[in-house]
Design brief:
The complex is a heterodimer of chains A (241) and B (103).
Chain A: H1 17-49, H2 53-62, H3 66-77, H4 82-92, H5 94-107, H6 112-120, H7 124-135, H8 140-168, H9 181-190, H10 197-213, H11 220-240
Chain B: H1 2-27, H2 32-56, H3 65-81, H4 84-102
Helix pairs in contact in B: 3-4
Classes of the chains: A mainly alpha (241), B mainly alpha (103).
Chain lengths: 241, 103
């Protein structure tokens, strides 16, 4: 995949770092894939069992967000209307709006083509890997390529694992609970950031709100909990000043 | 036919959710509060996803104890040793061991 990234901040960035940055992002995504690939296979298996295998698999390309894909396939299989499917997917994917809002700062000044591609590839794991790169600082271009490297590997692995699930069914024993690898990886990302009091407050409120909000329909609790956590952290930050 | 319409429309809506803030905030200076919120969003979103995964594990084999213990062990090892690999291995070993004992 090739794309042009032009950015105001990247004029001093040099080309030789490009491949290393891309490869670094791809490498950073690898630990997450151990948990993501089985999830992708579950989507494929679900699509196969829904009686609309190709349409089910194509949700990976078009919707590209696991939980929203599973909900869409399940609803379509159950005969839900177009409106219900679209509204449900939108509600589950609301958090992507927040991720995009944050990454928009980093992508300001980049080309339209880059922003169109980068936005398409945005989902939880690519946000995790991308933010880790952006938070390290430095010239913009290698950081964009770090995001792209992780995001491309993720996209490819997601489509292939769903296709594998479609073709061979569930071959990963459920007892291994590989789906828990992603949350465990996220814990390793959160812990180093807990040195700030406002982050601690924000994370704690987010966790409580997520558990309380797990009873809400359409995964609305996720977006609500993120908003609640961020608001609490900002309030703590304001009081501390 | 309706299936394809639903899948394509859901895809368009998902893409717009990703793209709209990127396009809108590229034309205007993002408000200061959004910059402050940006620093918090990553850790909060990750914590929320972990909590949602744990909440979703209720009722699984061995109940919530193995994943909860695995998260706690991963967090503790990460805090003490600052090694993501070590923390992940410790968490997975905890998950599988407790899962086998309680499952």
């Amino acid at each position: 995949m090739t794309t042009t990234i032009s950015t105001h901040r990247s004029t001093s960035a040099v080309a030789p770092t490009g491949w290393h940055a891309f490869a670094g992002g791809a490498r950073a995504m690898l630990p997450l894939l151990a948990g993501i690939v089985p999830f992708g296979m579950v989507v494929g298996v679900t699509a196969a069992g829904s009686g609309m295998p190709f349409a089910g698999w194509s949700t990976g390309v078009l919707i590209y967000a696991g939980s929203a894909q599973l909900a869409a396939i399940g609803l379509l299989h159950g005969g839900a209307s177009v409106g219900v499917v679209v509204m449900t997917v939108a509600a589950i994917n609301l958090r992507l709006l927040l991720y995009a809002g944050v990454l928009a700062r980093e992508w300001r000044g980049t080309s339209r083509r880059w922003r169109a591609l980068a936005a398409y590839l945005l989902v939880d794991p690519s946000f995790v890997v991308g933010m880790a790169g952006y938070e390290r600082g430095g010239p913009a271009r290698p950081r964009h390529l770090h995001y792209l490297g992780g995001a491309c590997v993720l996209w490819l692995a997601w489509q292939l694992s769903a296709a594998l699930g479609l073709a061979v069914g569930a071959i990963v024993p459920a007892g291994l609970h590989l789906e828990m690898l992603v949350p465990l990886y996220l814990v390793t990302e959160i812990v180093p950031k807990l040195t700030s009091a406002s982050v601690r407050v924000a994370a704690a409120v987010g966790v409580v709100a997520a558990v309380a909000g797990s009873v809400l329909p359409l995964h609305l609790g996720l977006a609500a909990a993120i908003v609640a956590g961020v608001a609490a952290g900002m309030l703590r930050d304001r009081r501390a000043r | 036919m309706n299936v394809w319409i639903a899948v394509v429309l859901a895809g368009v809506v998902s893409y717009l959710l990703r793209l709209a803030p990127v396009v809108l905030l590229s034309r205007v200076e993002s408000p200061a509060w959004l910059d402050r919120a940006g620093g918090l969003l990553g850790p909060v979103a990750f914590a929320v996803l972990v909590a949602a995964a744990l909440a979703g594990s209720v009722g699984g084999a061995g109940g919530m104890a193995p994943p909860l213990a695995a998260v706690a062990v991963t967090g503790a090892v990460m805090w003490l040793r600052r090694s993501a690999t070590l923390a992940l291995v410790a968490g997975v070993v905890t998950l599988w061991t407790l899962g086998a004992l309680l499952g």
